[in-house]
Design goal:
Helix content: 40-55%
CATH superfamily: SGNH hydrolase
Order of helices and strands: HEHHEHEHEHHEH
Radius of gyration: 21 Å
Largest sheet: 5 strands, parallel
Structural class: alpha/beta
Distance between the termini: 50 Å
Number of strands: 5
Strand content: 5-15%
CATH architecture: 3-Layer(aba) Sandwich
Amino acid sequence: MFITRRSLAGALTAVALLAGNLAHAADGAAKRILVYGDSNTWGFIPVESGSTTRYPKDVRWPGVLQATLGSGYEIIDEGLSARTTDVPDPTLPHISGAGLDGSAYLSSALATHQPLDLVVIMLGTNDVKKMFDRSPFRIALGVGKLIDIVAQTKGGVGTSYPAPKVLVLAPPPLGKLFPEGRAERFAGGVEKTKALPAYFEAIAKAAGADFLDAGKLTTTDGIDGVHLSPEAHKAIGTGVAEKVKAILR
């Protein structure tokens, strides 16, 4: 059979378009999940003092979540050290823009990553810092505000995507705080973090969101009493994966 240049070019174009459509279909089939958190989502490696680095992607709990769920899901990691639910932190002025206030940045993050099927929120640990003087109830209201932002942002900017579902995680309670400086910064925080799950569950239920107590999956076992070991990251990632599959089944 004689093949002209024009027919060959047409065939190649059709193959390219078909491949693109198949790839697009595959992308569209994946469930997209935004994970919104603080340093324990970012992957802060606990140290006795001084600066630190970040766990590799496959060690961090969002990475474990991705590996456990597999290719049918896409995990988008939005972790930021020192992030709160909805209160500005004046101690880190070099973090400009929305800063560390989780409520100030969330709508932009949602619109950036649309379409989304689910938003997983694990915040509240930094809210218990002494300087904020927040009760567990007030912190839970901050989480409620984040749930509402997800609903109000809906599809983002100029798009018709539906608002994603929300899964609220109560972070594991603080451990034994070390060194003394950190203990002072989080004074009274251990008790507050132990009280958070009950308040978070009530707020999530009232707002129509799902809830999971990460403290039932692991403890805050880092040497500083604030951050997580690789084992704790693995426990959260695998535990959250089971909850996600139930929500998005």
